[in-house]
Amino acid sequence: MKYFTILVTIILCTACGITKNSAVTAQNDVLIEYKAITRGYFLEIKIENQEILVKTQQQGPDKIITISKTEWDILMDKLHAIDLKTLPTLEAPSMKRAHDGAASARLKIIEEDTVYSTTEFDHENPNKKIKPLVEYILSLSKKVE
Questions:
Q1: Beta carbons of 36 and 45 less than 8 angstroms apart
Q2: CA-based max dimension of the chain
Q3: pLDDT tens-digit profile of 80-115?
Q4: d(Cα 54, Cα 61) in Å, to the nearest integer?
Q5: pLDDT by residue (tens digit) across 49-66?
Q6: Number of domains in the chain
């Protein structure tokens, strides 16, 4: 009986550890891409594994920095507050991009093998459901020089 109790305890502790590690891995298996383009303007932001890459020219150099664990956690909280399956159905609140009044932007989230993407919207004017996430992504990108 003593051996059985020890065996069950080891199995339970191992299972809890696997679950915890899976949650951490799930957060690290996320790629967030934000791209805004118009005639004369280019912005590409990629965030993955606590690193943010910013490109301001299509053929220009990549600028990369590491973001803090706190910033990463805030980003993940904002991301998980969104139902990713609804991204393609979100309507843009304005159409300035139709006449070059604003850059055309798109948000793409890649989790494991699944890609979630919005339709085009005006840069810095996303649907209210993704606005906190987009604003935070843009604020993080300003830290990259």
A1: no
A2: 77
A3: 999 999 999 999 999 999 998 999 999 999 999 999
A4: 9
A5: 999 999 999 998 999 999
A6: 1
